[in-house]
Each structure stands twice: as structure tokens, then as C-alpha cells.
């Protein structure tokens, strides 16, 4: 990395002293900006995403995964949500809470999703903190949902 690149990558953040603060208590900061372009990916359609579901997954996990893919297609985006909201939404669509619970548990066990409590810790679905936990999609699931924008596969 040459000096010019370093100068362009490091940006000086202007600092002003808070009212009543002594000069010793104010610190400057530098930020590194990564300008590496991300690969462009697009959302697969529902049918293509469902075709990528492995048959080795338990039926409950397959049903929950298809329901999640259906939500992505309706929203035209991938959005994570609270476990309680997912369970409520699936119940409104006719999927029982027990099936949703077991499906989410199997997906977590197989590495497709994780549950993150409000304090940032990853928890098990049976944890006391899971009621307010977010469902975090892992690469294993996201690779089923997205495709490269240059791929010629129909979507």
C-alpha cells in the first residue's frame, strides 16, 4: 500500500471539545474505509429457492424454510425477525406453533439460523432469553436465497 492509498483510506474525523471538557479528555479518531466492491447478488424466486432445500432436512425444517422463502419473495427482500413474530406470523398462515418451533430448532441445529438475544449473546431456542431473540440467517441459508447477478439461471 503506497502513501497516497493510505491517505485516501484513512479519513480524519473532526473533533470538537465538549462543553466543560479539558483538552486532555478529547481524543481524535481515524477511520479505515474499505472500498472493496461487494459482489452483486439478487434474490432467487420462491421456486428456485425451494429447489435448493436439501431433502435430508427434517420435514418441519423444510416447511419453515419454505415459509421463510415465501416471506422473502412477498417482501422482495431478506429481513430477519424476532422468534415470537415469526411464530405468530406462521400461525396466522395455518402453521402450528409446535411445527414452527421444531422447524426453527432443526434449522438452528443444522447451521441455517442462529438465535441472538437482546444482549448480543447467541442462545438456544429453549433458552429463557429466546422469547425476545432475533433469528439470524447464516450463510448456509443465505446461499440458498441469493444468486450472483451475472448467473443465467432463471428466477
3D structure, described in words:
The protein has 155 residues and is an alpha+beta fold. The chain has a domain at 45-148: Arc Repressor Mutant, subunit A. The protein is built from 6 helices and 8 strands. The strands form 3 sheets. It has a 4-stranded antiparallel β-sheet with strand order 4-7-5-6. Helix 3 packs across helix 5 (97-109). It is extended. The two termini are 41 Å apart.
CATH class of the domain at 45-148: Mainly Alpha
Backbone CA Rg: 22 Å
Number of DSSP helices? Answer: 6
Overall pLDDT:
83
Percent strand: 15-25%
- CATH topology of the domain at 45-148, by name, is Arc Repressor Mutant, subunit A
Helix percentage range: 25-40%
Low-confidence stretches: none
CATH architecture label of the domain at 45-148: Orthogonal Bundle
Distance between the termini: 41 Å
Could you give the order of the helices and strands?
HEEEHHEHHEEEHE
Overall strand count: 8
| Outline type | extended
> Main sheet?
4 strands, antiparallel
Strand order in space, largest sheet: 4-7-5-6
Q: What would you call the structural class?
A: alpha+beta
Amino acid at each position: 500500500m503506497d502513501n497516497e492509498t493510505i491517505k485516501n483510506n484513512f479519513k480524519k474525523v473532526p473533533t470538537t471539545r465538549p462543553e466543560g471538557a479539558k483538552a486532555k479528555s478529547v481524543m481524535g479518531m481515524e477511520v479505515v474505509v474499505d472500498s472493496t466492491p461487494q459482489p452483486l447478488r439478487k434474490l432467487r424466486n420462491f421456486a428456485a429457492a425451494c429447489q435448493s432445500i436439501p431433502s435430508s432436512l427434517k420435514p418441519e425444517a423444510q416447511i419453515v424454510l419454505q415459509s421463510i422463502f415465501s416471506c422473502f419473495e412477498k417482501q422482495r427482500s431478506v429481513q430477519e425477525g424476532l422468534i415470537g413474530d415469526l411464530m405468530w406470523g406462521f400461525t396466522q398462515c395455518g402453521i402450528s406453533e409446535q411445527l414452527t418451533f421444531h422447524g426453527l430448532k432443526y434449522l438452528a441445529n443444522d447451521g441455517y439460523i442462529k438465535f441472538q438475544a437482546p444482549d448480543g449473546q447467541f442462545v438456544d431456542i429453549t433458552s429463557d432469553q429466546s422469547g425476545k431473540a432475533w433469528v439470524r440467517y447464516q450463510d448456509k441459508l443465505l446461499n440458498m436465497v441469493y444468486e450472483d447477478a451475472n448467473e443465467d439461471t432463471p428466477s
